[in-house]
């Protein structure tokens, strides 16, 4: 259960950080993000990732907790990246059909 909680938190935190990026927000929303929203998204992502790290360190100690955090964030980064790639490909396919 802790692994699932850590993975979901990592995906959420890295999703916030990805959505704070100008290029990603422009691709997903079609407009430039405002600076205030980007700051809040970056802060939210950092807080969620820090909470996941604290949870794992509390559960397994520093040595194994840091290793588990590294693994969960790596898996989450791959999942977020795959979702962004899939979204771009599906959008490109949809635009091709309209022509």
Strand content: under 5%
- What is the number of helices? 3
The level of helicity is: over 70%
How many structurally independent domains? 1
Low-confidence stretches: none
Query: What string, H for helix and E for strand, traces the elements in order?
Result: HHH
Report the count of strand segments: 0
Q: In angstroms, what is the radius of gyration?
A: 16 Å
Distance between the termini: 47 Å
Structural class: mainly alpha
Calculate the mean pLDDT score and round it.
91
Spatial shape: flat
What about the largest sheet?
none
3D structure, described in words:
The protein has 99 residues and is mostly helical. The chain has one domain (2-98). The protein is 92% helix and 0% strand. It contains three helices and no strands. It has helices at residues 2-20, 22-29, 35-98. Helix 1 packs across helix 3 and helix 2 (22-29) crosses helix 3. It is flat. Keywords: Membrane, Transmembrane, Transmembrane helix. It holds the Pfam family DUF3325. The chain crosses the membrane at residues 40-59, 66-88.
In short:
InterPro entries: DUF3325 (IPR021762). This protein has about 100 residues and is an all-alpha fold.
Q: Can you give keywords for this protein?
A:
single chain, 99 residues, mainly alpha, 3 helices, flat, DUF3325, membrane, transmembrane helix, transmembrane
